User: What shape does this take?
Amino acid sequence: MQARSLGVLVLALLAASGWGLYWREARAGNEVPDRGAASPTNSTRNEQDSRLEELERRVQEQAAELARWQAEREQARTPAEEPVRLAEPVVKLEFQHHENGAPKSRVKTIDGVAMGQWEAWHANGQKSELGTLLEGKRTGRWQFWNPQGELTATGRYLDGERIGTWTVIENGVMQDMRYDADPVR
Assistant: This one.
């Protein structure tokens, strides 16, 4: 690419100088026009040759400088310019156990944050809770049981807060409770 650019530059310089017309006509086999004092003489040709050589040298120096600059920039690339590679999330299924060895809870975690279905059990093995966690907060429909395995409450959570109508069973009596901003009985 640099050699082609250099060749184009040389041709452009020839065209801009008095040599351009002279060279073109001579190459085509035509008679070179007499331009009087402006015609290239030996001394003028030598001056133009030396100017052309000087320009070629400067172009080569600038091309070399550009190549050095690009190489230095590539070596000095900062971390902010490097492409970001995101790590794969760490997904685990975590279990907790009661002192007697019975399961206490089970939940999936993503990068250490509880996500997905949550299940919990009483020490006697009866289920105590079932619901969904989103970013560690209760969300959606949840159910709760007492140690005898009887359903004690069911309702919904949003962002960790009770919402809507909850059905609560206390001492065999079922009652509905409404939760909006504040619980209302």
In short: The two ends are 82 Å apart (CA to CA). The mean pLDDT is 80. Residues 93 and 108 are 4 Å apart (CA to CA).
